[in-house]
Structure formats: C-alpha cells, structure tokens
Amino acid sequence: METAIEVRDLTVVRGAREVLHGISTDVPRGVITGLLGPSGSGKTTLFRAIVGVQIVSSGTVTVLGKPAGSAELRRRIGYYTQSPSVYTDLTVRENVRYFASLHSLGAAEADSVIREVGLAEQAGQMVSTLSGGQHSRASLACALVTHPEVLVLDEPTVGQDPVLREELWERFRDLAGRGATLVVSSHIMDEANRCDGLILIREGSIVAEGGPDEIKSRTGTDDLDQAFLRLVRAQDAENERGKEVA
Q1: What is the rounded CA–CA span in Å between residue 24 and residue 19?
Q2: What crossing angle do the helices spanning 92-101 and 107-116 adopt, rounded to 10°?
Q3: How many CA atoms lie within 13 A of 219 on its CB side?
C-alpha cells in the first residue's frame, strides 16, 4: 500500500525534556490510522511534526512525498487541533465559508459541511457564544471543508454526544473511502476498533503498530484496553531487564 506519511528517527526536545524518542512509522494512503495513547504520551507533538509546525531535534517527516511543512502541502493537509482554531468574532457560517473560499470553494459546500457536523441551527451564531462541543465542531467543519488529501485530527470526538460521535465516524469512513488519508488521535480505546490501523504510543515511544485485530491477537485478548496494558507491561519488563544487564 502506498505511503502517505513517513516518519524516520524523529526526536523532539522541549526545554530539557525529550518528548519523542527517535520514533519511526509509516501511515498508508486512503485509510484511517488511529494514534492512541494516554495524555502526555506525545500524540499532539507528533501531529505538529506531521503538519510542519513543530521544531524537531533530529529525524525526518515526509508527507505525500514532500518534507513536512513544505509550502505546497498547505492546501493538501487539514489539521484539527485540540484547541479550537476558529475566529470567535465571526459566525459559524462566516468561519467555514472563509476557509472554503481559500480553496476556491463556494457557500454551498461550506453550508453542507456545517450540516454534516450538526451545526445547522447554529450556523448564524457567533462562535464566542457556542458551547465547548459546538465550538469544537465549528473547528472540525473548517478542517473538513477543504477536502484535504491528508486529514490530521487531534481527539476530534472529545466532548461530543454518542449520536454525533457516530455521525462523525461515518463521515471519516466516507472520506477514507474516497481516497483521503486520516490520522485520528484518541485516548478512548473503543474508537480504536473503527480504525484500519493503529499506532500505540506511550511516553514518546511507539509501543506497537498494526490493525486492531492483529494487536488483539498478538496480546491474546479481545479487549484493546487490555491489549494496550499488556503491551505496556511487556515494555516495562523489557526495560527492567535492560537495566539489570547494564
């Protein structure tokens, strides 16, 4: 399968702390890849490196055959951040139509995406007056409206009700079916089963990679929470053996 994102020996240091420890991974085109791990594991830092806004200490990140951050990638990548990135002094409609116009898309396209994220009734409302969950959906609409080839989503379903979460995942699956590459982070393990492939990360290192069924089979459990715990414990045991040998 063709690769959309290639990460090689990526190290990121913030202050005196190494956040990512020389990680390497590949993300295939046209699938949904889940980046899973607890808060503080390095998920957002990896995402920032993929979209080219993170200073890296060493290693490389290549997206669609170009170095991450290249000017020619700006119109080909969509990025949904944990902190909503929309203009609070504009309405939902004005925000989404603005981002659509940057890619020569019309009002109809913008309004369609607003409906898809469940904000049709709030389309004329100032973003500053939205609830937290609605604010997040407005940001998601801005990321989706441009039809990016690669869509990086940092915990897009946090704070959303189960019905909307289901609708969003249907939207993600539809995008992948039409050839888009999605990388979705979450700390909710039940969402992992919706992904084609998984990258499990902990404390800045990749613990395991593979499809949900592959990872569960490898760890001898049908529960991804338990699978992650078993992988973590195996990693800890290996680290302890390494200390004893040293």
Answers
A1: 14
A2: 130
A3: 24
Q: What is the pLDDT of residue 89?
A: 94
How far is 137 from 90, CA to CA, in rounded Å? Answer: 15
Asked if 37 contacts 187 with a C-beta cutoff of 8 angstroms, the reply is: yes
- Determine the average pLDDT of the residues in 202-207: 92
At 225, list the tokens: 């929470």
> How much is the pTM?
0.87
Task: Give the Cα separation of 199 and 58 in Å (integer).
Answer: 21
Query: Which structure tokens are listed for 41?
Result: 């594991």
13 pairs with which residues across the strands? 18
